[in-house]
C-alpha cells in the first residue's frame, strides 16, 4: 500500500505540515468506506486504485451483492476516460476492497469515509456507532452533501477528527473535492485529509462549515427551481437543460445534473437544508417529490427528468417513502459530463 503523498505544495498554504497523527504508523491499517452506493463505490475505487486497502460496509446485502461488479465497471470506465492510470492493476484494485455488513470490521481503520444516505438521524446514529467501532485515532470524513460537519462531529468523542470531504460524482473522474473544516476540526485532521486526497490525485478546496457548504447551497436551489419550471409548464426538461448548455455553456443542465446525483438524494439534501436553515426556498417542489414517489430516481433507476438506456453502476433503485424523508418524520434518526452510466440519450418524462 502506498501511504498518503505528503508533498506540501499540493496543500492549501495555511495548512501546517505536521506528522499526520491518524495514519497507521506501520502503514497496515485500512480505510473504511461506509455505504456502498453511488459515492461509496466510486470512492472505494479511487482508494483501491491508489493502492490502499479498503473495507466497504453496507447494511444492505443487496447493495453488497452488486458492488464488486459495479467496482469493476467503474475501473473499466475510468481507464477509458482518465488521463493518468491508477497506481495498481485492475485485479489488484478489486482484491484491495473487502465488502461487509459489519461496522466492527473497521477495527483497524485509520480513516473512514461516510457515504451513507443523506438523512440527518441516520448519519448521526452512524457516527455514534463508528465512534465505538473504530480506533480512537481514526479520522472520520463525511461525504454528506449538506449536513453541517459539526452536527456529526458532536455525535463522537473525537470532534477534532471529523471533517467533510464532499467528493463530486463520479468520484474517480473528478479531481477536486470540497473540503469542509468544522469549527473543531484540527490542523492535523485537515492535513491528513488533504494528504490522502493528494494521494488519490485530487485537490481540496477548503471551506467553512455551513448547511450545504458552497456547492449545494447554490446547486440544490437551482435544481429545485429548474424542476419548478417544468412543473409550471414553462419548458420541458430538454429545453431547460438546453438553455444552460447552449446559452450558458454548461456541460450539463440542472435537471440532467439532478438525474446524475439521484433525485432521491436531491430531495433528501433539500430536506436537510430546509431543516438546518428554516429557509422555505429549500422545500422540494411537487415535481421532484412526485418523481421520487414514482421511483424515478434519475440515472440509477433508468428514468428521472430524462430517460436513460439502462440503470448501470448502481443497485436496483430503492427509495424510502417520502414521508420518511421529511425532517419532522425523522425522530431518531453536484458535476460534469455524465459518463458512467451508459450514454446520454434522453427522453423527456
Ligand atoms: N450522488 C451524488 O451525486 C452525491 C455527490 C456528493 C455527495 N453525495 C452524498 O454521498 C452520500 C451517499 O450518497 P449516494 O448517492 O452514494 O447514495 P446511494 O443511495 O447511492 O447509496 C447509499 C448507500 O448507503 C447504504 N446505507 C443505507 N443505510 C445505511 C447505514 N445505516 N449505514 C451505511 N450505509 C447505509 C445503502 O444501502 C446504499 O448502498 C450522501 O450523503 C449524499 O448526499 C452524493
Structure description:
- The protein is an alpha/beta fold.
- The chain has 2 domains: 8-208, NAD(P)-binding Rossmann-like Domain (Rossmann fold, 3-Layer(aba) Sandwich), CATH 3.40.50.720; 216-329, N-(1-d-carboxylethyl)-l-norvaline Dehydrogenase, domain 2 (Orthogonal Bundle), CATH 1.10.1040.
- It contains 11 helices and 8 strands.
- It has helices spanning 38-49, 61-81, 90-95, 120-133, 149-153, 187-199, 215-231, 237-247, 254-261, 263-277, 286-293, and strands at 30-34, 54-57, 97-100, 109-114, 139-142, 162-166, 176-181, 203-208.
- Strands 3-2-1-4-5-6-7-8 form an 8-stranded mixed beta sheet, with helices on both faces.
- Helix 5 links the parallel strand 5 (139-142) and strand 6.
- Helix 7 (215-231) crosses helix 9, helix 7 packs across helix 10 and helix 10 crosses helix 11.
- The longest helix has 21 residues, at 61-81.
- The chain is globular, with a radius of gyration of 19 Å.
- Mean pLDDT is 85; it is low at 1-26, 312-318 and 329-349.
- The structure holds nicotinamide-adenine-dinucleotide.
- Nicotinamide-adenine-dinucleotide binds at residues 34-40, 58-60, 63, 115-118, 122, 126, 143-145, 166-167, 169, 261-262, 265, 269, 315.
Brief account:
By secondary structure, the chain is an alpha/beta fold. The chain is about 35% helix and about 10% strand. It has an eight-stranded mixed beta sheet, with helices on both faces.
Q: What key phrases describe this protein's structure?
A:
single chain, 349 residues, alpha/beta, Rossmann fold, N-(1-d-carboxylethyl)-l-norvaline Dehydrogenase, domain 2, 2 domains, eight-stranded mixed sheet, globular, disordered N terminus, disordered C terminus, binds nicotinamide-adenine-dinucleotide
